[in-house]
Amino acid sequence: MEPTIDCPNCAKVYPRRELHCPSCSQIGVPKLYKYFPFNSHSLSVLINKHIWCPKAKTLNDPFEFHFHLTDTNLGGIPINQPSLKEAKKAIKELGVVCLSEINNDILMWSHYADGHTGFCIEFERSHDNDLGEWDYCLPVTYDAVEVPSFDPARLEDMASVAKIVSSKAPNWSYEKEWRLVISHESADGLISLPARITSVIFGCKMDGARRHTIAKILRRDVFYLEAIQQKDRFCLEIKPILFETIIEKKF
User: Fold this and answer.
1) Residue range of the domain that includes 155
2) Which positions of the chain have pLDDT values less than 50?
């Protein structure tokens, strides 16, 4: 089942990928995040406003974009197995930019931001950018232990394709992932940023020199925040930090 939101304003339940509640226009998920290590490639994202879009088959989960057919026949005619194999191969050639709706997960900071020494970019979702696009930016579903399965006749339905590209095992649910699906032509290449950067969050172990470098690149065009390790709980608190504090510090 597609992820939903319970509107806090009018209590209507609606699909999570909708930008606003259809009844009262209450904002749903306004921001999405991407974690980065600190290196020349991630700095180029900030400088050139382009991001790498890998093919699904190159990601660290071998079940990405995987599916299963419940029948070997279509209308009484046996399905050509080599053609099916090619179809499964082709869908894994699609590009995918992985994001999250959370910015404070300890594991994600550890895995994707080089042990909390990197940073996290906050993107704004809107009707004017790719992250607010209903058909291409999808929240991941984690509520099944089986891969997406279909009757062969339903394989080319948009709903079936959406399920294939947005389903993952429950083991990954802590990521609260969203994914922007990109055409074959743009996969394994740089694409323009899908939305405006609104904030940058520094990891709790990111040193001042690295923070200074990022602030020099983005100047006052974004807000700055930092992840702070709590003393009495296993959690991170995200707090704002002034541009002047970052840029004026001496090293």
Assistant:
1) 56-93+143-172
2) none
